[in-house]
């Protein structure tokens, strides 16, 4: 072990000598400068945040924001050319790929919470979403209390299933909660009547409904299980210089009003590949956040 | 690597309010074992019946066994579970389909039966091979002694065939345990499923899967040891497999 460390030190020293004359860059910024490339992690089906269009090219609200960040990084490092590499990630691979340096930014719909901040950092919030449930109109559900004794599905390992479990105990619903592997499958359970309701972030429910065979059959509850929670673009922890650049870029984007323009493009207009329209105008909370950008994981900070 | 290692995570409370993260994984392990044992019983029973059918003189029985084995082993397990869980209730009459969907613990029963039937095709092929490896004279001697076909299998062929295939059956049992991991696709939160939810909640992905790996290894080591003891216990000197 000691041996390895001394070799490591020797190597580091060699690099340090060759770099000292250039700039005092560290972490991700140094890496980007050295390789002339930045790698964005994208999700394949997080509509409309980050997903593949009909040409298998990643697009979406979070992708647009990431490209703006890339421009800012390019300017900051005074590079003529910055290659953008794209790397697909899933909920299971995003942390290892971020930790081992494969991706520099994760552009998707990752909830920013205090527990996750022990592992990664998030830049300014780009969306706020609350837990609600989707149901078939024919089932006649209205409130959370109507779920009493029913079978309810949510996606395993999400904050939503945790909130559902808590509400189940707190309100004495006695609902039968079943976990599903992913959102598509949880929705399938409602579609095939295995469950009467699917508890998830309302925006994801809206996109699942819009993309379903018969969108008119479904409705999303008014009742919410939680306060609106923030989504953030993820970056490596303890990399203050890179985070500063990214935060500045997103803050400038949101406060200038351009953030809302990008928002409107993805949430109130037809989006590829099927020409869906999510019809979700910007919420007051998010408008407020765009005016005063924040990377807080606490939902109470977004009132 | 920029990763915040935290091995103490296992002793921190999990957000589902069911104890610590370790409890979460252990509850997954219990479900893995229950599913695997039930699946293995199903696999052994149906696999033995089908395996025997494939060696019977009856052409009909042979073809039934052939079709059964090809049906279950030629389709990926993932697809089979998906078919049992999502497609079967839709093609049944509506009332029966609805009853099936509203069964409590549906993922558990579907996974056990689905994995069990998938593995039964493999058990059947091995038993067929085991019976086939016996000298033809065995069967003829049983007939010459006046034993019926059933008696011939019960007292002569099967006791030897099962002893011959005991080592490969050990592998099949291990496969059954590992194959239950596929059941996360129908919402069964077994060991792999709980490791996944642990990494989603805590973002400590390496710790979660390291623990799951070790638990799988330990369980399989126990099974291997148990089967070795069984092999020695049932060995009969003078049989093909005896010492």
Automatic annotation (TrEMBL), chain A:
The keyword Signal applies. Residues 271-303 are annotated as: Disordered. GO terms for biological process: amino acid transport. One of its GO terms (cellular component) is extracellular region. It is found in: Periplasm. Residues 37-270 form the Solute-binding protein family 3/N-terminal domain. Keywords: Amino-acid transport, Periplasm, Signal, Transport. It comes from the Bacteria. Its main location: periplasm. This is ABC transporter. It comes from Bradyrhizobium neotropicale.
TrEMBL record, chain B:
The chain crosses the membrane at residues 24-50, 62-86, 106-125, 145-166, 201-223. It comes from Bradyrhizobium neotropicale. It is a multi-pass membrane protein. The keyword Transmembrane helix applies. Its main location: membrane. This is Glutamate ABC transporter permease. One of its GO terms (biological process) is amino acid transport. Keywords: Cell membrane, Membrane, Transmembrane, Transmembrane helix, Transport.
């Amino acid at each position: 072990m000691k041996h390895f460390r001394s070799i490591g030190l020797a190597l580091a020293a060699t690099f340090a000598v060759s770099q000292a004359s250039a700039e005092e860059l560290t972490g991700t910024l140094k890496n980007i400068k050295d390789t002339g490339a930045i790698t964005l992690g994208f999700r394949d089906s997080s509509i409309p945040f980050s997903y593949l269009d009909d040409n298998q090219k990643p697009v979406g609200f979070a992708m647009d924001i990431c490209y703006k960040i890339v421009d800012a990084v390019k300017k900051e490092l005074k590079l003529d050319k910055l290659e953008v590499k794209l790397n697909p990630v899933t909920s299971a691979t995003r942390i290892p790929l971020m930790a081992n340096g494969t991706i520099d930014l994760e552009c998707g719909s990752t909830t920013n919470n205090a527990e996750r901040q022990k592992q990664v950092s998030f830049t300014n919030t780009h969306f706020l979403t609350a837990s609600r449930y989707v149901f078939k109109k024919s089932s006649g559900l209205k409130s959370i209390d109507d779920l009493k004794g029913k079978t309810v599905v949510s996606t395993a390992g999400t904050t939503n299933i945790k909130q559902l479990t808590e509400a189940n105990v707190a309100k004495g619903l006695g609902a039968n909660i079943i976990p599903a592997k992913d959102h598509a499958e949880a929705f399938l359970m409602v579609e095939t009547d295995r469950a009467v309701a699917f508890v998830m972030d309302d925006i994801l429910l809206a996109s699942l409904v819009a993309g379903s065979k018969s969108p008119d059959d479904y409705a999303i509850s008014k009742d919410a299980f939680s306060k609106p929670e923030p989504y953030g673009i993820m970056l490596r922890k303890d990399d203050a210089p890179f985070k500063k650049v990214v935060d500045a870029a997103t803050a400038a984007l949101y406060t200038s009003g351009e953030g809302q323009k990008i928002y409107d493009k993805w949430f109130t207009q037809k989006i590829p590949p099927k020409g869906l329209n999510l019809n979700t105008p910007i919420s007051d909370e998010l408008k407020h956040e765009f005016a005063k950008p924040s990377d807080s994981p606490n939902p109470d900070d977004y009132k | 690597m920029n990763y915040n290692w935290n091995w103490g995570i296992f002793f921190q409370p999990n957000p589902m309010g069911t104890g610590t993260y370790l409890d979460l994984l252990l509850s997954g392990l219990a479900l893995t074992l229950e599913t695997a044992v039930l699946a293995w019983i199903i696999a052994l029973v149906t696999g033995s019946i089908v395996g025997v059918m494939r060696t019977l003189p009856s052409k009909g029985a042979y073809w039934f066994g052939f079709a059964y084995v090809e049906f279950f082993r030629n389709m990926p397990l993932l697809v089979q579970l998906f078919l049992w869980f999502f497609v079967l209730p839709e093609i049944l009459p509506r009332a029966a389909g609805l009853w099936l969907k509203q069964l409590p613990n549906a993922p558990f029963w579907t996974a056990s039966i689905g994995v069990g039937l998938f593995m039964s095709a493999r058990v059947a092929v091995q038993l067929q091979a085991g019976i086939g490896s016996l000298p033809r004279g065995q069967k003829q001697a049983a007939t010459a002694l006046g034993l019926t076909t059933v008696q011939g299998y019960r007292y002569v062929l099967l006791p030897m065939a099962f002893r011959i295939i005991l080592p490969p059956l050990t592998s099949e049992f291990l496969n059954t345990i590992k194959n239950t991991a596929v059941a996360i696709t129908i919402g069964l939160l077994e060991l792999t499923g709980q490791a996944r939810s642990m990494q989603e909640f805590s973002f400590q992905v390496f710790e979660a899967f390291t623990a799951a790996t070790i638990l799988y290894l330990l369980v399989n080591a126990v099974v291997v040891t148990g089967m070795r003891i069984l092999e020695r216990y049932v060995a009969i000197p003078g049989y093909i497999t005896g010492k």
